[in-house]
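Q: I'm a student working through a structural biology exercise. My instructor gave each of us a protein and asked us to get a predicted structure, then write a short paragraph describing it. Mine is Xylose transport system permease protein XylH. I'm not confident about reading structure output yet, so if you can add a plain explanation after the tokens, that would really help. Here is the sequence I was given:
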Amino acid sequence: MREGERGPVLVVAGLIVIWCVFQGLDDKFLSPRNLSNIGVDIVGTGLVAVGIVFVLLIREIDLSVGSVSGLAGAAFAVLNVNHGVPEWLAVIVAVAVGTAVGAFHGVFHAWLGVPAFVVTLAGLLIWNGLTLYLLGASGTINIDEEGLVASLTSRHFGADAAAYAVAALGTAGYLLAARRRRSRHRAAGMPYPPEREIWLRTALLAVAAFAAAHTLNRFQGLPLALLIFLVVLVVSDYVLRRTRYGRRVYALGGGVEAARRAGIGVDRVRVAMFMVSGTLAAVGGLFVASGLTSASPTTARAAGSGMLLINAIAAAVIGGTSLFGGRGSPWSVLLGVLVIQSIASGMALLGVQDAVQFMITGGVLLAAVAADALSRRAAARSGRSRATPP
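A: Happy to help. First, here is the predicted structure for Xylose transport system permease protein XylH. I'll explain a few features afterward.
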């Protein structure tokens, strides 16, 4: 908030309001069972949204992620169920398909100059058609409910120590990283946060982490899907904020010409970001197929459906990733997808029709984009006023 970044605070406040409203309408909403189910349900959409963040950071958009997720699920189901390919090999092929599709989009955009909007919109149609072709006349292939992919969303670590260990590791890791960053900034003569602020942030994180662990342990324990999602968030955040390549991504989002003059391979970075988006879309599609134990783009919740694309983009933007590039992080997805899934879960408990859910989700997305635009406009006015001599 000191740096003018009030977005995450507003999202957290909004999430608290959503939870309080739905709990008041149905006391089962904040039950350990429902919160654990939300923790599993956010993973598929969340993974797709993380890939969207990488593309949004360079001021582009990928409209094909929903179709790519459906294609990955269909490729896995056809290979494993119809042709008897081992699950582990079918998973690798399905993820590789997503990576290849992302590279295809990136080459057309970066090297041939076709706008990303057009390339990925065409991809949305192409890959959706290919998915329907692979699935055949039935449009649905059921996967093994006891298999590797199905266990991604059904497996839980029942021991209480597992959830508490993850909470402790996460809190300790944040504390060590924050203190190390403070030491580096202090040694370089750069602004650094006071020690008490780091400890306050750590304490707040510990409260949230251990409360979540306690809630999960009251149901079935730590879900495997949620653990994988958290690992992806940590790795993605480290790549973007702690590596030279990540700094190039943010630099490209800040301005193409400035990045090119700084010696950054703009085309290579663009292709790589679309490959990341395609890969995570494929992984997310496998998690969605796992939750449904089937590959089918014909239902609203399935991979390949239009709602998956809309929810993924909404999760990234609501969490704080800017549509104008250069601002955002993978952790913003966690907040955004919690808002989206909390609305969906609350509506489902109340028996509200999907039409109302779509309108509410759209309204929240519009509010998030409007807030981002107003924030940038205010920052631009502030910059101009500081540049004007008194």
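A: Here are two points you could use in your paragraph. Residues 385-390 have pLDDT under 50 and may be disordered. The chain has 15 helices and four strands. It's a good idea to check both against the output above yourself.
Q: Great, thank you!
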